[in-house]
Predict the 3D structure of the following.
Amino acid sequence: MAEEERNNEQQEQQDAPADAEASAVDETPAEEDAAAEDEASGDQEPAADEAPADEEPAAEEEPPAASAAAPEPAPEAEEQPTPKQRRKLERSRASGPPGPQLSPEERASQRRERRRSAAEERGRHRRRLRERRGEPRPGTPAAERVPGKRKVRLGTVVSSGASKTITVRIERARRDPTYEKVVRRSSTVHAHDERNEASDGDVVRLVETRPLSRTKRWRLLEIVERAR
């Protein structure tokens, strides 16, 4: 029994270093992991704490200065002179030798001479134009006037009291294109009777003519039937 106990003790002594090494091996990665986590957390926390220290506070936008001058209005465009004004200005600025002092009579004679020479030049220019154009062309001949066909109407005299004027009622009858009914219409016109031949109730024939008065556009052509 004693030998068995000694053997067991020896066996336990031999196994103890192996268990210690295994436990050391098992604990080392865990400790390394814990240390790594502590370092990472330690690195992160200062970074989080240092971030506000590194960042500078945003500068507040300053309001626009009240003393800033308002934009000046655009200058108005200068009015351009007309060609006549420009020529007058150029003549006034032209520098040349001064002319001789002239009396009013001498200036008037020079003015007449300039006008006479200008008229002669215009005459020569117009004569050259006429020579260049040659003889005037005949152009389009006037159309021959052909009198149109005058209207002729048959009517009944309703009034002949006025001198050389009769009032005639002209009746028209036509068939309606839709209802096939005969529609009668009448109109009254004034006609010229040169010899006062027509009387009330006569059937007369009128012909269209030029305006003879404010209302007369017809003339008595003949008396077809006398009133009974």
